[in-house]
Amino acid sequence: MAESIGKDERRVIVLGTGGTIAGRASTAGDNIGYKAGEVGVAELLGSIDAPDGVLLLAEQVAQIDSKDMSLAIWQTLALRCAHWLAEPGVAGIVITHGTDTLEETAFFLQSVLGPSKPVVLTCAMRPSTALAPDGPQNVRDAVVVASTPGVQGVVVVCAGTVHSAFDVQKVHTYRLDAFDSGDAGPVAYVEEGALRVLRNWPAPTGSARLTFERMAGAESWPRVEILVSHAEARGAIVDALVRERRLGRADAIQGLVLAATGNGTLHHALEAAALRAQAEGVAVVRATRCSQGRILPREREVLRDAGALTPVKARIALMLELLSGERSA
Ligand code: SIN
Predict the structure, then answer these.
(1) The pLDDT value given to residue 208
(2) Helix, strand or coil for residue 119?
(3) Of 61, 138, 200, 203, whose CB has the highest number of CB atoms within 10 Å?
(4) 20 is catalytic
């Protein structure tokens, strides 16, 4: 880490968490048979030419395949972000991350930090050892976003496109441009080192500070499961989860997200079980399993809906609500 910086220099902190961007394959032509989370973040920055006046500082927070993301790593990541964001010389933060749960980490950080500086998650679809890796350009673009005055909130940069943490979703298994913001569209593009801004940056939510404090001090997190409604769905899993709760198990379910069909509808057997669970104190939320659109509320719905949040983001929102005591389970 650099000891001192010039007075006109802006610092961008690059936090490494692993992912394909830090992946290594045994043969250079192999874009899928690699191990994620192998190359350190300082080494990833070796090939990055920072914009004028920007000093990059690297810190390794984790080194994982993001399919294995844990609440403990999220907690550490949020604390490191809060630490660096409070430093006056820090313009913003870049986080290198796997693509698979990137939208969850982005939404979690936006919910607990609601930052007035940029926190920019970036990634790659090809490992660092590929013949033409996409990681270096994504990191360079992310640094541009993180060091641009006036940018705020948690965003994702991939393939030259900047997405808001609220809207971003991984939509492709292989394409380099693997993310989409659905109906909302991207926030900006990065073109040859310049930002073309299309709409407002993610705004802080009023409850972020309280949520951060509860999250930072939590020794355990409320258990919230996701179940999908589908043809022939049944209520047996919901009933089994509720039985565990009746037995008083410490890690029993507190919340349930139902990945509902279309405009928030549920198979009648699953709905009946969800109503039984809600009557026993489980916090139940419906989120649509459609990749675009939002649930438009209808009269007389007994199970509340998550609006435009995807099931994985609705789960995070519900966990944080339960943790903040805004909702009793
Ligand atoms: C991961 O999510 O860590 C592996 C997959 C990827 O980064 O594309």
Answers:
(1) 81
(2) strand
(3) 138
(4) yes
Atom of ligand 1 nearest to the CA of 19: 3
Q: Tell me the average pLDDT across 102-109.
A: 98
Q: Mind listing the domains of the chain with CATH numbers?
A: 10-197 (3.40.50.1170), 222-324 (3.40.50.40)
Name the one residue in this structure whose structure tokens are 């009946």: 272
Q: Any idea which residue has 């389970």 for tokens?
A: 329
CA–CA separation, 310 vs 48, rounded Å?
A: 34
Mean pLDDT of 130-135: 97
Q: Which has the minimum average pLDDT: 39-53, 77-91, 149-163, 200-214?
A: 200-214
CB hemisphere CA count around 180 (13 angstroms):
10
How far is 122 from 92, CA to CA, in rounded Å? 13
Rounded to whole angstroms, how far apart are CA atoms 189 and 178? 15
Q: Is the CB of 98 under 6 A from ligand 1?
A: yes
State the CB neighbour count (10 A cutoff) for residue 268: 11
Band the pLDDT of 207: cuts 50, 70, 90: confident
